[in-house]
Design brief:
76 residues, five-stranded antiparallel beta sheet, 5 strands, 22% strand, globular
């Protein structure tokens, strides 16, 4: 999945139904969709977003701030 993918505009968090942000791949984690409102990260496995509520991984405060910084940097 890439930032220009039209699917990204219609994907929503299964819990709050709000928009998700694409997090590019990192060495250890892989690509993911992030909900900053609930601080949940949903993995993308083989190009398929895993959007079951049980797939969401809670993100700690430090990681949340780091992810917000990355998202702001990629938006510019």
């Amino acid at each position: 999945m890439n930032p220009d993918d039209p699917l990204l505009a219609i994907l929503a968090c299964p819990l709050d139904k709000g928009p998700l942000s694409l997090l590019p791949e990192e060495e250890a984690e892989g690509a993911a969709l992030y909900n900053p409102r609930l601080r949940l990260s949903y993995p993308i496995v083989d190009g398929i977003p895993q959007l079951l509520p049980s797939s969401g991984r809670k993100v700690g405060a430090d990681d949340h701030e780091r992810l917000l910084t990355r998202l702001k940097a990629s938006a510019t």
